[in-house]
Amino acid sequence: MGGRQAMAERPGGTCLATLPTGRKIVIPPGGCTGWHFHRVRLDAVVLAGTLTRVLHDRTVEVHTAGTTFVEPAGIHHIHLGHNLGTEPVVLHVTPALPVGTPFAIATPAPPGVTPAVCGQHTP
Q1: Which of 118, 89, 107 is nearest to 25 (CA)?
Q2: Which of 6, 19, 32, 64 has the greatest number of CB atoms lying within 10 Å of its CB?
Q3: Following DSSP, what letter does each residue of 62-120 receive, concatenated?
Q4: Which of 20, 19, 23 is nearest to 3 (CA)?
């Protein structure tokens, strides 16, 4: 997975790499992100739970704990994520965002898709 690494200087002038910058996302059981897109590529690891994603072309992808996925950048990659399970979905995401940039941009559902699809898609 991509992501920036920070370097921490140790006494004596040596440097150590730290974990890639990222964000923890938690989606509770029954929760939904709503339709959105990202301005930059996003790399994700599912740490717990099962995430169901609905993509712009109505494709449904299911990601279980321990799997990774990439969300491409741009308005042509509208998607939503929801948790159809009984335990929280926990994600670690690594976006390459400049400071102050919004993480996601809310948007209407893509053409031909019902706006209220959260919870209606099953694998």
Answers
A1: 89
A2: 32
A3: EEETT-EEEE--SGGG-EEEE--SSS-EEEEEEE---TT--S-EE-PPPTTS-S--TTT
A4: 20
41-55: average pLDDT: 95
Task: Give pTM, 2 decimals.
Answer: 0.68
Instruction: Say if CB 32 and CB 84 are below 8 A apart.
Output: no
Q: How far is CA 80 from CA 20, 70, 76, 94, 100, in A?
A: 24, 13, 13, 17, 23
| Those residues with Cβ within 8 angstroms of residue 105's Cβ, 6 or more apart along the chain or in another chain | 36, 37, 38, 39
CA distances (Å), origin 32, targets 8, 21, 90, 98, 118: 37, 24, 13, 26, 6
pLDDT tens, position by position, 62-121: 999 999 999 999 999 999 999 999 999 999 998 766 667 777 788 888 887 766 667 665
CB atoms within 10 A of CB 91: 22
* CA–CA distance, 32 with 97 (Å, rounded to integer): 23
